[in-house]
Amino acid sequence: MRRKIGRNFNITPYVLETLHGVRANRRLLLLWVLFAVGMAAGARFCAVGNGFLGEQIDVIFSSWYARSTGDAFWVVLRSSLLTNTIFAAAAILMGLSATGFVLIGCLPLLRGMGLGILSGQLYSEYALQGLWNNLLLLVPGAFFSVFGLLLLCKENMESSQAFGIAAKRGAFPEEWQSTQQHLKRCGVLIAFAILGALLDAGIAAMH
After folding, report:
1. Are 111 and 175 a contacting pair, CB within 8 Å?
2. CB-side exposure of 19: number of CA atoms within 13 Å?
3. 49 half-sphere exposure, CB direction, 13 A CA radius
């Protein structure tokens, strides 16, 4: 029986398939890593204590927390949608530039830093209750908006690379469909930003 199982079980195809999936999505993985680094850096900033940076962190956190727990649905929706839209618009504009490829990677880093500051400050101010507030107030909306942002960054890294190739060779690569198709895909991905903002507003309205 053991010999039969040993003959039938072959892990090589699974490993090769996994490696192929990682290689095919290496840009998305890189963007996730940049976001995680930003989160860690933002949480670390919360330990700076007093000083100008500490004061600015307190101001940012106090403004966000007051808005997330006391403002009306439309107020939070407008604020959250504005933040998500700024990041999305920056990604799209960089994606239409031949030189925007590297700069796009800064967006998940900055987004992660902002969320890391809020998460770290929640835990610093409210300890274990802060963890619950983090899961309740921050995570639901941030999950969708960040997921959409990373997909949007990946899409625009590819478009920026295509524009870079066109600038050098005078023609787009064969796999490039059209700028119109690219913008349509970006429009679909912006739906994640809207959904994230709606969740932020809905959760705030329940408090």
Report:
1. no
2. 6
3. 1
Per the CB < 8 A criterion, the answer to whether 37 and 112 are in contact is: yes
Sequential pLDDT tens for the chain (207 residues): 444 444 454 556 644 554 455 555 788 999 999 999 999 999 888 776 666 777 788 888 888 888 777 768 888 899 999 999 999 999 999 999 988 998 999 999 999 999 999 988 888 777 766 677 778 788 899 999 999 999 999 999 999 999 999 888 888 888 888 889 999 999 999 999 999 999 999 988 886
> Which long-range contacts link 95-99 to residues 24+ away (Cβ below 8 Å)?
95/155, 95/156, 95/157, 95/158, 95/159, 95/160, 95/182, 95/186, 96/156, 96/159, 96/160, 96/163, 96/179, 97/160, 97/163, 98/160, 98/163, 98/164, 98/166, 98/167, 99/160, 99/164
Tokens read off for 137: 């107030």
Here the tokens at position 174 are 């064969």
Amino acid at 194: I
The amino acid present at 125, given as its one-letter code, is: E
What is the distance in angstroms between the CA of the first residue and the CA of the last residue of the chain?
60
Report the phi/psi class of residue 97: left, alpha or beta, with left for phi > 0 and alpha for psi in -120 to 50: beta
Q: Which residues, in sequence order, are CB contacts of 6 under 8 Å at separation 6+?
A: none
Would you mind telling me the total number of residues written for the chain in this entry? Answer: 207
Nearest to 84 by CA among 179, 185, 184, 200: 200
